[in-house]
Amino acid sequence: MTALFNFQSLLLVILLTICTSTYAHYVFPGIMDRNKDNYLVGPFWKCARVGERLSPYVSVACVVMAAVEFMG
């Protein structure tokens, strides 16, 4: 089953995208900031902003999703 039809997998993909984009923005801030209006990099730049501003909630969500994956 793809991640689009399974809510738990979709949530996991979104969380991983936010975490990866935040890390990529931390490592390469100039590339992402320079191309934030690009149709390809723009969504990842927005995910990086969500990860930076809501990092406690994103980290709690990652821990919860890890626990759910571990238990299930």
From TrEMBL:
The keyword Methyltransferase does not apply. GO terms for cellular component: Golgi membrane. It is found in: Golgi apparatus membrane. It is a single-pass type I membrane protein. It comes from the Eukaryota. Residues 1-24 form the signal peptide. Keywords: Golgi apparatus, Membrane, Signal, Transmembrane, Transmembrane helix. Involved in the early part of the secretory pathway. Belongs to the KISH family. This is Protein kish.
